[in-house]
Design goal:
By secondary structure, the chain is an alpha+beta fold. Helices cover 23% and strands 27% of the residues. It starts with 12 loop residues before the first strand and ends in a 14-residue tail after the last strand.
């Protein structure tokens, strides 16, 4: 195809060729091309086959509004070829074809559409029931677009940023650029997000003179340069808006390229003011065969020419309903395109200058006419035009049909905001949002403005309003622009026509799901009378385009059919993401963001095998073979130490500190005495265990408490939430990172610790469940507790994080002669399992209450305190039958333990294994399981099924806990 390289609006660089492969052939384009424009320049017209009928589909828009040009690019399926920059070496393949896009063997399905009416799978494929499994396999095999190859590594570079802004502007067209400049002028820091690779919007490819005595594309370039050069504005192009939420939170995903350090970058912007200037998209005109390759939007045809130097075809016919269509026909004719006719369904309202321009060029103009049918096999060959009243008909030969019913606002970000509704504006024919939050403003073509100066003024007004919402002084400028806008042309009138009176079966309202006008009528005949229901029943707008193509037309069609033209239906609800996005794009960079304890480096040097534990990295083993038995033996027979710095640590103090503790803990915190630790738990409103730990009283109204590692980050909010309506005077300080901690356990633990302190730590001076404040190494303050989690004599010591390394090093040095071994989480899990101690998340789940876990004794029923969180649920569930109960079990010596998570069964699943390990100290396997209570009463044996596909079962014996040292004598030494 011949290209024009002499246009000032080109976005390609003819001096930088690129080459991509497609169906075994190499195709050449230029830097700035998208994959779609490279293929189009080389004669490719069929890009895919449709989802249901496998009809040929071609280039329709250049913004990825539908599934027509979704392709497999570098092993990533469902990639929008229109918006993906072409890069040398790219491998491009079609999808949803059996054979090739030109000759798809499944195209025969197009002849059977009469057997697939709206909702046919709901009404027919579920009966008879015995055939449903076969139908389900067929449906699943045919569902979805594209195929993932698990063996391929796309190798995408993903990143994420959270740019700071006072004002966020959505849209980089003339209104958005004006809004950004206005907000920056008011003093705000501005972040601007634009989906296309460049700024300028509709001005960027139009040459019509503006009120600034320069072509619109030159005006766009001027505004873009001002924005890019402004020190208070950050502009992000190629950035798709994913969602807009309360508190002006905006999420987006930016597409990068070879010249950038990322391929996908997730953005999250929380500004204080939001200006939405997202402009418009074209509203499709519906007619028979409106999906044929060669049918395209006005903006697609014009941008092909103006940005990429590509003629959309050789001979074109236009069928439009607004002045931009007439303007485009004149523009493309002047650039060399043969235009065989222009039909405009409007009976009046056309620009006289544009009508005169058509006449000057001898382009046939059909006022009040519209296209009724596109003819041709795999591509448009001719079109049938007729007046809306069908009083006559004319066929025009062409290979390109530029069709558009009008414009529709891109208001997805606005309609997603809480409380925002939509209403049809009679002047513009737009569905415009109402009840916008005070922090949100909007402007530009989104409101129907078409005059260039009105667009800029409206955008500037939106920018100043957003800046005012962010706290900047902009009242004078707002008044000035409001006065100016009142003297400029207002929103242009728009039409409501969706389609001429078509009788054929193949007028598509949704390209993604092959949904036709006939399907919509079938759904309405079956009683689905609102767009939200029809959308789902007839699959209108449920594909990758997410209602972008049919979103405006569907409510108009339904309203017309229901006779509700004066009270029309509104479009269906938009939900995030507004544009399809890869999960890797949402995940962002592959950096492992973890916290480190003060002595993690020392554990690394000792050979610690680190694993993720919430926000932390913790040592699981200290043996390259991942065998913890030596670590367990050391704790039982000599001594071991484990880093527990990840535990949550908090100080609660103030006159009402006790009330706060009583509110969130199930135990009676008034019984917490000085010099001892009290073990207690927190439950949620359902009585289910969410945290456990110890509480220490350090002084009058002054408490120190610990929480589990996983709960440390949530404790402050938990206290705050459950006391938010109380006028209580207390303070809560998070000391988790301020203190390191270690647990020194084993028969030799006291002797080793005594070498670090001069304080008396004898059993008489420091008994089990005691609390003491010691001095280590002569100057390091330590908060010490006698606890029994691992079943041996143990001391848990909390020391300032800055001193933790010094204490740790000295501890290892002094313990060397006493068999001290560093142990990890796996050894700790075996030790606590032998004692029957619960770990939250291992032996508990969202259904398990304190009673289910055998911890009901922690609940003080009669404590004199404000209502404890979860107490009503604990009252209701105490003794409740039919619940899962925690039980211990053992297995005969010589037999291996079952795997964690295996089902416990009889004739049906009756529970599952929580944790099971081999205990070297006992010589056999021990474990804990959650089992239905009636099964425990009926049998002292449990059957475990490890392989759900097999029949072999493992037998274990129900056992009392603790398994090891049941009297707890070793903890009290």
């Amino acid at each position: 195809m011949i290209r024009r390289y002499d246009l000032t609006t080109l976005r390609i660089d003819p001096d930088r060729p690129v080459s991509i492969s497609y169906l075994g052939r190499s195709y050449t384009g230029y830097a700035g091309d998208s994959v779609a424009t490279v293929l189009y320049a080389n004669g490719v017209r069929i890009f895919s086959r449709s989802h249901k009928y496998h009809r040929p589909r071609g280039l329709y828009s250049l913004d990825g509004e539908c599934a027509n040009c979704l392709m497999d690019i570098d092993s990533v399926p469902n990639t929008a070829a229109e918006t993906t920059p072409a890069v040398s070496g790219m491998r491009v393949a079609p999808q949803n074809v059996k054979g090739s896009p030109q000759r798809d063997l499944l195209a025969v399905l197009d002849r059977f559409d009469r057997f697939m009416p709206a909702g046919f799978y709901y009404n027919h494929l579920h009966k008879p029931a015995r055939l449903w499994p076969a139908f389900a396999r067929l449906i699943r095999r045919g569902a979805g677009l594209g195929r993932l190859d698990p063996s391929q590594e796309p190798g995408l570079r993903c990143d994420e940023i959270h740019p700071a802004a006072d004002v966020c502007v959505l849209g980089g067209g003339p209104a958005g650029l004006s809004a950004a400049l206005a907000a920056a002028e008011a003093g705000a820091r501005v972040v601007l997000l634009e989906s296309r690779p460049w700024l300028g919007g509709s001005f960027a490819y139009r040459s019509t003179a503006s009120g600034h005595s320069q072509a619109l594309h030159a005006r766009a370039e001027s505004l873009a340069r001002q924005v890019l050069d402004h020190p208070q504005i950050r502009a992000f192009t190629s950035t798709d808006i994913l969602g807009a939420y309360q508190d002006t939170l905006v999420t987006a995903c930016q597409n990068g390229g070879p010249d950038q350090a990322f391929d996908r970058r997730y953005l999250e912007v929380r500004a204080r003011g939001l200006a939405v200037c997202t402009g418009t998209r074209e509203r499709p005109l519906l007619f028979e065969n409106n999906d044929r390759p060669g049918v395209m939007q006005i903006g697609c045809a014009r941008r092909l020419m103006r940005h990429y130097g590509l003629f959309p075809g050789q001979r074109a016919v236009f069928s439009v309903g607004h002045d931009e269509g007439l303007e485009t026909a004149v523009d493309l004719f002047d650039l060399g395109l043969e235009v065989n006719g222009v039909a405009d369904y409007r009976l009046e309202g056309q620009s006289p200058d544009l009508v005169a321009a058509l006449k000057e060029r001898d382009i046939p103009f059909y006022k009040g006419w519209c296209v009724h049918k596109a003819k041709g096999g795999r591509q448009v060959a001719a079109v049938e035009l007729a007046p809306l009243g069908l009083t006559s008909q004319r066929e025009l030969a062409c290979d390109t049909l530029v069709a558009s019913a009008g414009l529709t606002p891109v208001n997805g970000p606005l309609t997603m905001l809480p409380g925002v509704t939509q209403k049809l504006d009679e002047q513009t024919g737009f569905y415009l949002p109402a009840n916008l939050p005070g922090t949100v403003s909007s402007g530009g073509r989104l409101h129907g403005y078409e005059d260039p100066e009105s667009i800029e003024a409206s955008g500037g007004l939106a920018g100043f309003k957003a800046a005012a919402a962010a706290g900047f002084e902009a009242g004078r400028e707002i008044n000035r622009l409001q006065d100016r806008l009142s003297g400029l042309p207002g929103p242009a009138p728009g039409g409501k026509l969706v389609c001429p009176p078509v009788k054929g079966r193949k007028a598509f309202i949704c390209f993604d799901e092959d949904a036709t006008l006939k399907n919509v009528r079938q759904a309405m005949d079956q009683g689905f009378d609102v767009p939200e229901l029809i959308k789902r029943y007839a699959a209108v707008g449920t594909g990758p385009g997410q209602n972008g193509v049919p979103g405006h037309n569907l409510p108009l069609l339904v309203s017309e059919a229901a006779g509700r033209l004066h009270d029309p239906h509104v479009p269906t609800t938009r939900r995030p993401p507004l544009k399809p996005v890869l999960m890797s794009g949402l995940a962002g960079s592959n950096f492992e963001m973890v916290k480190q304890t003060p002595v993690q480096a020392s554990q690394d040097r000792l050979g610690g095998i680190m694993e993720r534990a919430g926000v932390w990295k913790r040592a699981r083993y200290f043996n390259p073979e991942r065998d913890p038995s030596a670590e367990v033996r050391a704790v039982h027979n000599q001594a071991g130490v484990i880093d527990v710095s990840t535990l949550g640590k908090f100080r609660v103090f103030g006159p009402d500190a006790l009330k706060a503790l009583q509110r969130v803990y199930v135990g009676d915190m008034s019984r917490v005495g000085s010099g001892k630790v009290t073990y207690s738990a927190m439950v949620n409103e359902d009585g289910c265990l969410i945290d456990d730990g110890v509480v220490v009283k350090r002084g009058a109204n002054d408490y120190y408490l610990t929480t589990s590692t996983g709960r440390a980050g949530l404790t402050v909010e938990w206290f705050r939430f459950h006391t938010r309506y109380e006028d209580w005077d207390y303070s809560l300080v998070n000391l988790t990172d301020a203190f390191g901690a270690f647990n020194l356990a084993g028969p030799n633990a006291r002797e080793i610790l005594q070498r670090l302190t001069e304080d008396d730590i004898s059993n008489q001076a420091f008994p089990f469940l005691g609390y003491r404040e010691l001095t280590l190494l002569g100057e390091v303050p330590a908060r010490a507790m006698r606890l029994g989690f691992v079943g041996e004599l143990s001391f848990e010591l909390h020391v300032p994080a800055s001193m933790m390394q010094a204490v740790w090093d000295r501890l290892l040095e002094e313990g060397r002669g006493h068999g001290l071994t560093v142990f990890g989480l796996e050894a700790q899990s075996i030790l606590r399992l032998e004692k029957g101690h619960v770990i939250i998340g291992s032996e508990s789940e969202q259904r398990t209450t304190l009673h289910d876990l055998g911890l009901g004794f922690l609940w003080s029923k009669d404590k004199d305190s404000p209502l404890t969180v979860g107490a009503p649920a604990l009252q209701r569930t105490e003794g409740q039958p039919g619940r899962l109960k925690l039980t211990g079990f053992t297995r005969e010596p010589g037999l291996r333990p079952p795997r964690d998570g295996c089902l416990i069964v009889d004739d049906a699943p009756r529970g599952y294994v929580c944790t099971a390990r081999f205990s070297e100290a006992l010589g056999y396997c021990v474990g804990m399981a959650l089992v239905e209570e009636d099964l425990l009463k009926a049998s002292r044996e449990l059957q475990i099924l490890e392989d759900e596909a097999g029949q072999e079962r493992m037998t274990v014996q129900v056992s009392q806990m603790p398994f090891y040292d049941p009297k707890g004598e070793r903890m009290r030494m």
